[in-house]
C-alpha cells in the first residue's frame, strides 16, 4: 500500500514512551531523514517528518539542550545568554570605517529562537509572492504561507495587560508556538510610537497579518500566561519527543557530508570527542545562514575556485553557496532615560526595582522579567525627498509599495556599557541592496567561517541608512518622547555634520542577527529545496530565504519549514 500523492495520507503520530532527546546515543536504525541543526527549521522538520511512523528521522544538533536554562526561558534574561550564542567574528568592513560587527547565532536545541529577542513579525505579503516567483515554489506565496503561519502558531492575549494594542488574530491558528503581546510596558513604547506618528504620519498596525508598513507595539514568542519563552524546543520538540521513529541527539556537530558521486549518502559528526559516521537516505541541512553554507563548503559543495584554493575536492561547483548573505544592518543611538522607564538597568542594577521584579515574577509571572525588555518599532519607506541627487536608488524604488525600506526600533538593553539607566534606538535597513558572503578560512572544520558583511555596501544603502539615522534622532527630540530622555549618550550632541554622524554610525553598526540567503531557494537550491546538481541533500532554513523579510524573521523560519516538510513528503511519496 503506497501513499497517495496527497497530504491527507499523512499517518497520525504513534504514541510511545521512549526518551527521544538524548546526549549519549547513536542512531541504530536505517535513517530516512537526517536533519542537521535543531533551530526552528530543524525542529519543525523533525516533528513534521516523524509524523510518518514509517520514516525514521534523526536530528543532530551541535549545541546542548537548554530546556531547563532560566536564561533561555525567562524572557527578560535573554541578554544574559552567553555560551549558547557564539558571536562569529567578521572581517573588517570598509563601509563601516573598518569596524567588524560580528554575527551571533544560536547554538542549542531551539537554535536562534532559543536565544533571540523574541520579537515576532512576518512583514509584507508581497515579499512572499516574490519568493514564490523567483524560486518556482508556489507554496511560498503569501496566501499559502498564511496557512503555514496558522498551522505553526497561535495568538493568546495576556490575562492582565492593561493597555490597548491593535492585534489582528485572524492570521493565527492553533499551532504550537504561542505568540502574545507584552503583559506590561516599560513606559517608553507609547511615547516613542506617538513621536513616530507625529513625525512620519504612520499608523499603528499589526505587522503579522501581511501588512508591511506601520508602527507596531510588538508581538513576541512568549507564552501569554506564565510569561516564558515559547520556542522550538519546548513546542515542536515536546510534541515529537517520545516518538519511536525520531531521535534527537544534541552536542553532536556534523563536520562533513559524504557523497558517492553526486549523491549524499551520510555524514560524520563529532560527539564526545569522537568522530561518528552514519548513513542516511536523505540529508536535510538546517544549520542556519552561517553554518549551512559552511558545512556544504567543507563537504565540497560551493564555488569551485574558493574550494580548490583551500585544497577541498569539489563535489559540486555551486557559486551561490555562501553568496547572497543579507541581514538587517543597524546603527544605534544610546540615551540615558529618566527613572520612570523600566529598563534592564532598573531590574538588574537598581536594588529596589530588582527585588520587586523578582517578587512579581515569582508570585504570578507579572512584572518586567516576563517581558522581553520592551520594544516598539516602525517600518516605512523613504520619501522621494530623502534621496540625495545623483544617488542610484533604483533598487529601492523598484520594491513594491507595501515593502518598507527601513525600520526604527528601541530596546532597553544597552549596547555600550553605562553606569546609568539607558535605552538604545536604532535605524535598520530592511531590504538592503548589497550582499555579503560566507566562505571558509581553511579546510579544517575547527576554523571559524570567513564572513564579509558588506553592510551599507551600495550608495543607495548608505543614503538610506544615513537619512534614517538622522530621522530617528529628530523623532527622539520630539516633545512626545523627549521628557523621558536625560541625555543622548551616543553619538552625543556634538556630533552634527553628516561626516561625523556617518563615522559614528560605522563604529556602532550591528547585525540584527537576521542573516539569511546563503543557500537560497531558486539560486543554490531547486524549487523543492534540493541542492542543485546533487541528489539526497536539501537545505531548509534561513539560508534558503531568497531575500530578507521586512521585519524580524523567526516567524517565517517556522512557516517555511512547515511548508518544506509538505514538499518533501509529497515529493518522496510520489516519486517512483
Ligand atoms: C541573538 C539573536 C537575536 C535574534 N532576535 C530575533 C528576534 O527578536 N526576532 C526574530 O524574529 N528573529 C530574531 N533572531 C533571528 C532568528 O532567531 C533566526 O532567524 C532563526 O533562529 C533562524 O533559524 P534557523 O533554523 O534557520 O537557524 P538557527 O536558529 O541558527 O539554527 C541552526 C541550528 O543548527 C545548529 N548547527 C549549526 N551547525 C551545525 C552542525 N555542523 N552540526 C549540527 N548542528 C549544527 C546550531 O547550533 C543551531 O542550533 C535573532 C537571532 C539571534 C542569534
Ligand atoms: C545565566 O547568565 C548569567 C550571566 O551571563 C550566567 O552567569 C549564568 O551562568 C547563566 N546561567 C546558565 C544556566 O547558563
Ligand atoms: C487581518 O488579517 C487578515 C489576514 O490575516 C486580513 O485579510 C485582514 O484584512 C486583516 N484585518 C484588518 C482589520 O486589518
Ligand atoms: C508555560 O505555559 C506553556 C503553555 O501552557 C507550557 O507549555 C509550558 O510548559 C509552561 N512553561 C513553564 C516553564 O511553566
Ligand atoms: C530605583 O528605583 C526606585 C524605586 O522605583 C526609584 O525611585 C529610583 O529613582 C530608582 N533609581 C534610579 C537611579 O533610577
Ligand atoms: C500579582 O500578584 C500581586 C500581589 O502579589 C498583585 O498585586 C497583582 O495584581 C498580581 N498580578 C497579576 C498579573 O496577577
Ligand atoms: C550616572 O551614574 C553614575 C554612577 O552611579 C552617577 O554617579 C551619575 O550621577 C549618573 N549620571 C547621571 C547624569 O544621572
Automatic annotation (TrEMBL):
Q: Which residues does FAD bind?
A: 254, 553-554
* Gene3D superfamilies, sorted: FAD/NAD(P)-binding domain, Glucose Oxidase, domain 3
Q: Which GO molecular function annotation, any one, does this entry have?
A: flavin adenine dinucleotide binding
Q: Which cofactor is recorded for it?
A: FAD
* Lineage top rank: taxon: Eukaryota
Species per Swiss-Prot/TrEMBL record: Sodiomyces alkalinus (strain CBS 110278 / VKM F-3762 / F11)
State the organism's lineage: Eukaryota, Fungi, Dikarya, Ascomycota, Pezizomycotina
Protein name, as recorded: Putative glucose-methanol-choline oxidoreductase
Against PANTHER family, the record matches this protein to: GLUCOSE-METHANOL-CHOLINE GMC OXIDOREDUCTASE, GLUCOSE-METHANOL-CHOLINE OXIDOREDUCTASE N-TERMINAL DOMAIN-CONTAINING PROTEIN
Q: Which residues form the active site?
A: 514 (proton donor), 552 (proton acceptor)
